[in-house]
Amino acid sequence: MAKISPEEIAHIREQADIVEIIGDYIPLTMRGKNYFGVCPFHQDHSPSMSVSREKQMYKCFSCGAAGNVFKFVSEYENISFIEAVAKVAAKIGISLNISANYKPVSKFAKEYEIMNLATLFYQNNLNTEFGLTAREYLHDRGITDEMIQEFQIGLSFQGNQLRDFLEKKGILKTKMLELGLVNQKNQEYNDVFNERILFPIQDASGQVVAYTGRVYEKDKIPKYLNSRETFLFRKGNILFNYHRAKEAIRLLKNVVLVEGNMDAIRMYVCGFKNTIALMGTSMTKEQIELLKKLHVPVTLMFDNDEAGKLATITNGNLLKNAGVEVLVIRLTNEKDPDEYILKRGVEVMQDTLKHPVSYLEFLYEALKENKDLTDATALASYVKSVLASLENADPITVDVVLNKLVQEFNLSYEVLKSELKEPKTTETIEVKPIVKAKKNRYQISVEHLLYAMMNDVKYIKMYQSKLGYFKEENYRKIANEIIYYAENKKEMSFADFLTYVELSPLKQEMNTIITSIKDDEIDDTSIADYIYNIKQIMWEDEVQKLKQEQKKLSDMNEKERIGNKIVELMKKIQEMKIERSVK
């Protein structure tokens, strides 16, 4: 598979108009020479993201999100950097010799390959004559050969056939154990799955990380068996079918969230390709973050039973309090989406999906169930629950709900409004503001200098001629990366350097600097001041270090030598102060 060269990436970036590309995702308004829009990477209520056509970059003045066109598409669509490059190229009509399923090399590449081998082994089992009973079971349940192929459904036989197969491939049983493919008991390694139909579970990038095994003979228990958690598989981090559905979700601007894998499979192959499954009923913070990154409303369509209703209330509340727009569909008569489609048909499901209700509307109706609202105590309890649900709601929603309560139950608007200030009782996700660690004068100066070096070769030259090094290894590494890039490119384009950052092992460290510095803080005078601060602090620190060293010495000659160094450094510091005061 061909890889994209740095030159190709740079060419695509130069041809792509960042204003037009970002403008396809969020509305932008011109203000001065830049464009501004509501930042999609935090709960922004006023336009705080600036997009510069001149610099070909974006930056949010509130949350610090920053980058070039590829970084925006990658973060907005929650796809890899390389996928974002391919997507931007397609938008501007450039054809790339790269697979849409290209995945960067992972440190777990070997482990993913083992899981892929296991998946192919299980798939082959299902296609043999010994898999006939399992295939007939799947067909009887309306699972077509197309579904089997699309979702890589497989079959495990009795015994330890997977273990023996992988062992012949040179894979250690201890590695199989790490990946959850075998169990260990009394020094024996045995296949986890026996005589079960297997549904692979993939992570957000489409790599198989685990399996759900379902029995197909009635006397087998338990009905479902899931892989145990491993370093590749954390159930709370996974949303089933996420990797397949995300493109349809972007196009349809909505995601349908169901409970079970089979519901998601049925929905997907019937054309509802924006469907993913929760893999359980209790949503984790990691799953909520995955959903937030989609930047679309979430439609909850859980099972039509009491447990499904409670899961809708719980998870809807969690999503609402995380700033996600939540819609709800409650199916009638049939148990779940899979059964609903099989018994009622695709067209009925299409119509059903067109008529969701808001989460709050669903909640208020659910709270009324089995309550006699003519009773004062029951009514008071209901009203308090409604008010509690308005935590984090926008002012318009609050006003609409309060007015509905006033009209329906003849209550006082003022009293209801005042009760909103009371402590809330609903379960919420605690959202703590991001508190940045306070940086000292030295750190501030170094990071401003490094940011300036990323923007212009003249600041690299200032660093080399007037400073030359930083005392901390991490800062030295970043400086060396910047210099290496500039020397190889013979220039310093910040927009192209942002691409280099995304592929660098120092990505996190450099992005921390990029997101914390404002462009208007960079000019020749301020950078000269930062260099002065760095030199002064490094020399003063060296003086203190030498004084401590001198105290420990007993040799008078050595003490004198250290003393001379101290005097020399103190003289340099004083001369630099005088020079700066003259300027």
Structure overview:
The longest helix is centred in the last third of the chain and has 29 residues, at 524-552. The chain has four domains: 6-91, Alpha-Beta Complex (DNA Primase, Chain A); 109-233, DNA primase DNAg catalytic core, N-terminal domain, CATH 3.90.980; 237-362, Dna Topoisomerase Vi A Subunit, Chain: A, domain 2; 441-582. The protein is of the alpha+beta class and 583 residues long. The model is unreliable at 99-104 and 422-435 (pLDDT under 50). The radius of gyration is 30 Å and the shape is globular. The strands form four sheets. The chain has a five-stranded antiparallel sheet with strand order 1-2-3-4-5. A five-stranded mixed sheet has the order 13-12-14-15-16. The protein has a four-stranded antiparallel sheet with strand order 6-9-10-11, with helices on one face. α11 crosses α14 (337-344). It has 26 helices and 16 strands. α13 (306-321) links the parallel β14 and β15 (326-328).
